[in-house]
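quick one, 586 residues, struct below
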Amino acid sequence: MEGTREGGQGGRTRKKGGLITMPFIFSNEACDKLAVVGFNANMITYLTTQLHLPLTKAANTLTNFSGTASLTPLLGAFIADSYAGRFWTVTVASLIYVVGMTCLTVSASLPQLRPPPCTGNQICQEANAGQLGVLYVALLLGALGSGGIRPCVVAFGADQFDEADPKQSSRTWKYFNWYYFVMGVSMLLAVTVLVWVQDNIGWGWGLGIPTVLMFLSVVALVVGYRMYRMLDPAGSPFTRLVQVSVACFRKRKLPAVSDPSSLYENELLDASISLGGMLVHTDNMRFLDKAAIVTDGDDPKAPDLWRLNTVHRVEELKTVIRMGPIWASGILLYTAYAQQSTFTLQQAKTMNRHLSRSFEIPAGSMTVFSMMTMLITIAVYDRLLVRVARRFTGLDRGITFLQRMGIGFFISVLATLVAGFVEVKRKEAAAAHGLTNSPHTMIPISVFWLVPQYSLHGMAEAFMSIGHLEFFYDQAPESMRSTATALLWTSISAGNYLSTLLVTLVHKYSAEPDGSNWLPNNNLNVGKLEYFYWLLTLLQVLNLIYYTCAAKCYIFKPVEVRRVMATERIAGTEGDRGGLELSTNV
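---
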């Protein structure tokens, strides 16, 4: 770890990190989310109205981009944990994102980079290969930038609270609530102000403003540089996992040990990857313990890590494997959530969005109800539910993150179930007014019928996404926290790709000889979108059953935490550490 204290007047030292760094980190997060959400919230409208892409192609383009942008965090986390550290990874990645958004802004501003506007009743000309090429380059740069920002910003903020200090470690779970609250407020502004600018002033301004905000997010982060508590990168976590796997394979014929104390341990070797404490041996997956068996060909003083690994490194691999089933359970929730920016937005475009004769709610702003519900849920959870639950459970966080995730899964089931019934109501209104074959005519049914499904999705995210984030950060080995946080984004990525696959399959196999389709390209009024929503509901029910079994079987990470003595913290010295404590992180 880099120096965590710096000198002051009179020889006094000031400990780095803590609450004083939060304004800079949250300012970065706020500007970042204003930019990213302002860019994504209305993108389906840009693709269909400006580039004239068919609805299913536009929806798949958007979910493919979201999927890729959620997969690149693995690359960003690898760079942060192995070489650059979280601060510099976020800074450079943000600049790459600025370049990508600048390209997109130029594309939206120059007429030659878009197809000509539709006139009269003629068939609209779809964007050509060159115009789509500029779009895809901009989206790719955005995805690469996101890869460095997403896994590192949240972990970098949590790093500012020293787990060896009991006064600070108890604030970590609160930090995740604060982080999501700041993110939610920023997203709320994005889906209202920025979407209104895009719909009413122009896409050049609507994308240019997020570009400037993205640049300001870099400035906000860099300004606080001297105050941050920074952890040095501890080497590639992927390399360590592969080394354990190779060593285990090489020694696969050895008999399992009956006494775990005979397995190889080397605190000096593991010092840089176990600042918060050593992982202790667990009895599950004991076949991996063979990687820590010392044989005649091994040199314990200078081990070949491709043949011999420590218990700590073996337990790192066990921890990652144990996290796998919980990771996989999040995929379907994000598949359902992805529909808000595709088909749900298209529903909103067909409904009455007028608040008055002169003001109409932009369709892309409907996610404001999801954001508001998420913010209210987080506030109520943090200020009320935790205090009530704490009396019954005795846990500082009220309920475990696994319980929090389970509640989110259940609410998400309700969200997609309700969405199907609302679509039935919308189509009945279209039929009653003879508008079934008029896809571009507003149906006289209020857009506020969509509020329940938006709100339920927001409530589900407040429980599930924050619980998921807490789970990855808490249960991951300390040196792999950027990588573990990236796992959240890979589940989002998998959810978006699964959405693309489902949409493609449903569109293909629901097609009838008469041209009808569950998900038609040009007219939702003649489709069966409610069947698609109910298919998602059924899949999520099965997923909830799976998650319940996975959560009940999950084994929490046991750690020996070496806590700094109170006198050492007060004096600010690097004296002996004491107070060895066993924590099971339940």
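The chain has a mean pLDDT of 80.
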